[in-house]
């Protein structure tokens, strides 16, 4: 018996955090995306050009990951890679928007930062 593959389409990536609205505001400013749905504990952002969205869900027990990873500490489960034209300019903008630069930078051609909820994300050149 052959089962046909149903249609799958990735709609959004959801980040847990202590406050969905605070994190949505940060990523909205960083990426220039608009809020398309806002609920008390959940916010959806969409890229104006379309594609996969980014959502934020408030979780009271949220624990930020430790990066670089350490045994027995909260591990990151994913991170966002964000393409930029100029690393220095993009990093300065991200920090002004509320990001924090990670102390450990593994490569010269990317920057690791933390969003306001402590999720690591990378800026890298085209």
UniProtKB/TrEMBL annotation:
Entry-linked CDD domains: VOC
VOC domain location: 9-126
Domain of life: Bacteria
One Pfam family, short name: Glyoxalase_6
Matches recorded under Gene3D superfamilies: 2,3-Dihydroxybiphenyl 1,2-Dioxygenase, domain 1 (3.10.180.10)
Protein name per the record: VOC family protein
Source organism (scientific name): Streptomyces decoyicus
Lineage: Bacteria, Bacillati, Actinomycetota, Actinomycetes, Kitasatosporales
